[in-house]
Amino acid sequence: MVTMNETIYALSSGGLPAGVAVIRISGNLAFPIAGSLAGALPAPRQAGLKTIRTRNGLVIDRGLVLIFPGPASFTGEDCVEIHVHGGKAVVNALLQELSAFEHCRLAEHGEFSRRALENGKMDLVEVEGLADLISAETEMQRRLALEHAAGGLSGLYNAWADRLTRARALIEAELDFADEDDVPGSVSDMVWADMKRLRLEISDHLAGADLGEIIRDGLKVVIAGAPNAGKSSLMNALAKREVAIVTDIAGTTRDVLHIDLNIEGYAVKLYDTAGLRETDEIVEREGIRRALRTVADADLVLSLAEIGSEAQRNFPGFVGKVLTIGTKADIHPGETNQYDLLISSATGSGLAELHELLRQDLQARSGMLSLALPSRLRHRTLLGESLRAVEAALASEDRGLDIRAEYLRQAATSLGRITGRVDVEDLLDVIFSEFCIGK
């Protein structure tokens, strides 16, 4: 059974072999264990070059040792970092030696961060931001994750929760001390004016959820159209490698393929789908069904048609933006401009313009400077609950202050669940399972 009383250790740096490997130790026994391995420990937060030995005196390696006394450490506990050469044999020998100490065990996924949460060093949004920062692949993902990990989003939610708490306190004062001269009757007017402002703030904030999820998970762009419209050729041209099979045979693409692109720091997930047409062939019909399902979930659809054919503009279940693209411009020169863009995957004509259209679309979606945006479905759901509770309080003028105060309590509880200020135990195992062992 996992307990907070045990001292934990893990490799916290990257995969082996490497130039340097960092082994992290956290818990009440961290300093005595490190002393057994390295002798006299250096001063806090100062690196000391030490010979790392087994308890039998055999040398494992020479490396740097740093100690971080709690609570001023990442986990809030006593922590040690041992920096050694990043060879597999060196690291395995050190980890094997650590496993021999009583009440010391290998950390589980995300356990260092979980201890930081439980010791008040981070809140839940900051933990999620840290996980996103570790996995960030684009500049915008890094910036969004850093905003969350640094507490920008938490500060906003905590300020809203504090306003709700103050509003409830003023309502309680008016209910309990209505006959006292020092509690003016205009308190309610002040409270509800602020709650109207808060409703607008939460609503505006929720409007950025789509962008937050796009930055974190990537803009989902789907290439759709009739068979032989050039979908797979465009996919390969944008990927700059052979991702999809290209032939003159209609219906070659049967399943959904996807690649990840980086456009101006944004992650873009590009999907190639089966050609859309009526068919009795059972495998192709399944590919078309999957294609339509992928289109319905898209953020943007590139509807391709060979120049001279009509591009599809409406797709079942999709209500977003559709860009119509005429393909094979190299063999259809001077054709009609009934499309948003003309391209040739064979010559590269129009591909730079398509890249620019995607960049403009991303910029239009991100028409804001702040990246204090909700980026997970969990955030969106709880913010929606909080907003509905505030709206219910504002709409319940005829139901009494006690009922309206209860709605505000519900709103504050939903905000608290985002940051972990109220009980969210059921979420923790799921969230920390996303982390690597050493974090």
TrEMBL record:
Keywords per UniProt: Cytoplasm, GTP-binding, Hydrolase, Magnesium, Metal-binding, Nucleotide-binding, Potassium, tRNA processing
GO cellular component terms, semicolon-separated: cytoplasm
Binding-site residues for GTP, renumbered to this chain: 228-233, 247-253, 272-275
Highest taxon of the lineage: Bacteria
Subcellular location: Cytoplasm
Note accompanying the cofactor annotation: Binds 1 potassium ion per subunit.
GO BP term (any one): tRNA methylation
Pfam families, per database record: MMR_HSR1 (PF01926), MnmE_helical (PF12631), TrmE_N (PF10396)
Binding site for K(+): 228, 247, 249, 252
Record GO terms (molecular function): GTP binding; GTPase activity; metal ion binding
TrmE-type G domain boundaries: 218-363
Record keyword Lipoprotein present: no
Binding site for (6S)-5-formyl-5,6,7,8-tetrahydrofolate: 24, 81, 121, 439
Cofactor(s) the protein requires to work: K(+)
Binding-site residues, Mg(2+): 232, 253
Subunit structure of this chain's protein: Homodimer. Heterotetramer of two MnmE and two MnmG subunits.
Stated role: Exhibits a very high intrinsic GTPase hydrolysis rate. Involved in the addition of a carboxymethylaminomethyl (cmnm) group at the wobble position (U34) of certain tRNAs, forming tRNA-cmnm(5)s(2)U34.
Family: Belongs to the TRAFAC class TrmE-Era-EngA-EngB-Septin-like GTPase superfamily. TrmE GTPase family.
Descriptive protein name: tRNA modification GTPase MnmE
